[in-house]
């Protein structure tokens, strides 16, 4: 199936010589949620700005729905909705008029019924006659999403959609994003909140220093790069590991009150190693009162990848 967004060897060098993007290639499938993770200055916003026609690339090609973003600007802009980081809205206009006006800017005929549907989907209908200056930050961000959806785009870019939003509203926004995907909209979001990607993304991309380090299905990424820890709570603290406990990945933690064994759950021999570890503990007269396991999170993996890239 042809990807809805296709990026090939995309580069961007600004006039001061800064290379924001260094040969990025990426295909985005229709109907998926792709989360782009990366530190400040990694190139996330520059890449989105190029796809949306706001910034010109220095090299490479980008197509949306089969149209070139430079040659076929009008066609691609019609297909794309963008929710920027900044809360840029007309503070003295009503919610309904703001969204309706945005639809008109994209050359779409007035459709009050469609605007009503968007506002209801985003829990904004009760605020339709409110001026934007009267809304909370979370509600204003929902209005930005409504504006981006007003012209019925097939692709929606969310650039830090929950920045400055409290935890409760952030989870509400995740539900909004999921409903949008169910309606057939392809969603690409950049985020600093790794739990956001872990919660709602189908695939995760990690970008750093203008280079795309990887793009992979979230579950596959967790399986391939994620590790587990076996944590043993000791009945008596240890100062040092006995010579007989020469097992790679084993260490003392929490002021000697725990033993921590890092292992890869996908390797078949790990189960045998754990059994050997427990036998050796008994032989060394080291006893534990409890044991638990911990799976690496997406944040652990992100930190690892970005750290390796430095």
TrEMBL record:
This protein's UniProt keywords: ATP-binding, Nucleotide-binding, Transport
GO molecular function, one term: ATP binding
Residues annotated as domain ABC transporter: 5-234
Nucleotide-binding in keyword set: yes
TM stretches of this protein: none
Family to which this protein belongs: Belongs to the ABC transporter superfamily.
Protein name: Multidrug ABC transporter ATP-binding protein
Gene source species: Metarhizobium album
């Amino acid at each position: 199936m042809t990807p809805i967004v296709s990026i090939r060897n995309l580069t961007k060098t600004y006039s001061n010589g800064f290379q924001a993007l260094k040969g990025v290639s990426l295909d985005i499938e229709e109907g998926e949620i792709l989360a782009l993770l990366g530190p400040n200055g990694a190139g996330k916003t520059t890449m989105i700005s190029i796809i949306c026609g706001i910034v010109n690339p220095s090299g490479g090609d980008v197509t949306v729905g089969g149209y070139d973003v430079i040659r076929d600007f009008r066609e691609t802009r019609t297909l794309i909705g963008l929710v920027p980081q900044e809360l840029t809205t007309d503070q003295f206009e009503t919610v309904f008029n703001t969204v309706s006006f945005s639809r008109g800017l994209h050359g779409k005929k007035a459709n009050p019924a469609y605007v009503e549907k968007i506002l209801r989907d985003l829990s904004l209908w009760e605020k339709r006659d409110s001026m934007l200056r009267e809304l909370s930050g979370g509600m204003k961000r929902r209005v930005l999403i409504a504006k981006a959806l007003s012209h019925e785009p097939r692709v929606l870019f969310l650039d830090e959609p929950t920045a400055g939003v409290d935890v409760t509203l952030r989870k509400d926004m995740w539900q909004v994003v999921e409903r949008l995907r169910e309606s057939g909209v392809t969603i690409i979001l950049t985020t600093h909140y790794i739990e956001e990607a872990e919660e709602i993304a189908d695939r995760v991309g990690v970008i750093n220093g203008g280079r795309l380090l990887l793009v992979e299905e979230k579950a596959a990424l967790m399986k391939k790069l994620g590790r587990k820890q076996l944590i043993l709570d000791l009945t008596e603290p240890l100062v040092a590991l006995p010579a007989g406990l020469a097992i790679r990945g084993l260490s003392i933690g929490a002021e000697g009150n725990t033993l921590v064994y890092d292992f890869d759950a996908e390797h078949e021999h790990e189960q045998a190693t754990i059994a050997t570890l427990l036998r050796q503990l008994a032989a060394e007269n080291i006893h534990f009162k409890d044991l638990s396991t911990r799976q690496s999170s997406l944040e652990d993996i992100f930190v690892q990848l970005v750290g390796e890239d430095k």
